[in-house]
Amino acid sequence: MVYIYPTSPFASKQRRRWANQMAVTDFFAGEIATELLKMLINITRKACLCKPSAEQLIVTINELLPIITEIKYSGVELTAIRQQQLDKISRALHDGHELAGKVLNSSRWNVYKNLQLSRKMDKVEKKISRFVQGPIHAHVLADVHHARFEASERFDRIEGSNRRLEQRLESMIIGGAGEGWWSEEAVKMNEEEMYEGNLVKIGMELGKRKVKHMIFDNDDSVVIGINGIGGSGKTTLVREICRDDEVQSYYNNRIFFVTVSQSPNVEQLRQKIWGFLSESRFNGCSDIVPQWTIGYNNLNTVVPTLVVLDDVWSLQVLQQLIFKVPGCKTLVVSRIKFPSSVLNSSYELELLREEDAISLFCHTVYGRTSIPPGADEDLIKQVVEKCKGLPLALKVIGASLRDQSEKYWIGAKNRLSRAEPICENHETELLNRMKLSIDYLSEKVRNCFLDLGSFPEDKKIPLDVLINIWTELHDIDEEEAFAILFELSNKNLVTLVNDSRAGDRYSSYYDISVSQHDVLRDLAIHMSSLESVNQRKRMVMARREIRVPKEWERNAEKPFLARIVSVHTGEMREMDWVKMEFPKAEVLILNFDSTDYFLPPFIENMPKLRALVLINYSTKTAELHNLSVLGSLANLRSLWFEKVTIPQLPKKTILPLANLRKISLLLCKINLQDQSELDFSHLFPRLTELTMDHCIEMTILPSSICHVKTLRSLNITNCESLEELSFDFGKLILLQFLRVYACPKLKMLPIGIKNLIWLEHIDISQCVNLHCLNEEIGGCLSLKEIDMHECPQIKRLPKSANGLRSLRRVICDEEVSWQWKEMEQDLPGLCVQVAEQCFDLDWLTE
Question: Pairing state of beta strands 495-497 and 513-515?
């Protein structure tokens, strides 16, 4: 070990080295302390300024976020990239707003936390700054480019319209004061073009393509019709066609658009159309006024021209406005289906599919053609579903819901379910515009239309039910009721389903049904509900409810004066009904879906009831209770039961229903063998028509039914268990119509059929095990029609068939058709029709 003393030279040198090292260390330690102090000062300052910065950031975000939101929902469809950028900056703004809130809520002495929050705020500010200084300028440039292009296109269209207007004004002016009709029409057209220019033409391509093909057809003097329900977009479609470049080029801009309306000045319209046609051919010699009887038919110069007659309401008016000029085609736009004797071809405008309906609705509500992120997709689809693809309904209801809260949307959906207007705009813009079609109807036809609102939405209405109601309520016969139905169908106010034989004298009404658009049903209910509930002619439950409406219950102390009462519920017990009086009710419609149903006791308080309709929409048949209440209906004339189990009829509690004419039992469980002791002729002494369809448990027709001598029409169809008809069948001496089709176990017609001397029509089609036509068939001297198609077991015809001198029509399979054709010499006027096989599964949708 070596000791170094202080006096040593080496020790002095070592001390100086240590002193120098400590000086350097002190120097660097001082610098570090200084920098650390500066950093701590900056951190403290930054932490202290964190809250004011947060407040300023909130102000900036609150100013910028609404602008970004406005851009996103401005009504202009954005590209995916731009939409993504805007969504990204929107999230950044929301995150910044949330971050600033955290800063304001943090303690000012928590320096470390405030420092972290401050750094995050710096990142948000940089992100916002980069967007404002970068992509947003590109957005602006793109918008300027689009605006310039659209403005240029619109100015070109206006300039072209003005140029055509100047040419027409130079060539012709009609009117004493120098005001020309060309000016009026052109200005109106320009205004509508400018208004509709911003609307998205959704779901039009198919219709546009079909109509363009029709108007490009080479045939001369063609009249083309476009028809559809009110509000379906007919006028919008035809204006889009008129603006189409191919159409304008084909007709060299010689297109004349005129609105006819409900109360037109026909003579003035004829002058306008003639002025257009003559100007197109005589280079401006428009002062030539034709002699209407011969003048316009003598033009031989072929100049392609298109005349568009919009909003035509009358066939008589239309016939006066059609000019048979070579090269001229007339496009007729109407809510009415005009006959083929006037139209060479026609196109019925289809309603929008679900995808297109959602696009149009979202464009109206949000300014984009898709459901925006964060919106309640299910609620939107539920509201769109209520519009049933009708463009006008989608636009009006969409505009009413724009910028509304979710609770308002839910309330609107519920009001639509009750067929109530959701707001004043909905009533004026949609229902009142649809009402134009109804105002044009005669009073009787209008009342028949309003009756259609008594049936549930989205359900087919049995035609037989409708005919019965109309005949009972409006004092008309079946032929007039059918004519009214076709008038409503031609005006696109109803749709006939399975109407291939509709109108046939021998067709079966219950094979045909009627459907109606929900908006038209809502209109019918709305028009029927303008009076107080006690004064209404029609009391209708617009949708299924668990009990009687509270409005009815609150006003039950006073009598209800309705002539039609329509109830739609689920299972109903005796205690669920409310005591009500209906002194003027003539029709009661009970719609329900359950397996147990108690007939309402208030039926006893319907002394004038003439038609009772009971339809179960459940998947299973329902057990009926309180059937004895029907005994009080002395004036009942028509009874329709569907998908119910008929209990054993009480012998004492049901009095004879002396005025009952029609009984229809569809999809009912009924075993009449248990009720063989009942005397049907006593219970129903005036019964003229009995229908049993799909009553699968009925094996034999009770003989007591054959004692109802007033019966004129018997329909036993689709009864798969029916094996035979009664031996007393020949006692139905007044029977005129017999239908026993689609009864696969039926093997022969009953003995005694020769006694049916008034029988006009017999239908045994699809009775696949029926072996033959009885030899007694020759005794039916009044027989006019036999339908025996799809009866493969019938190989030979009876010899007595030669004696059917009144027979005019036979529908059969090809295998036996030659036998009937051999009889044509003996049966003058006979027409043999070979049936085509038809495989129809439409019933599966029910």
Answer: antiparallel
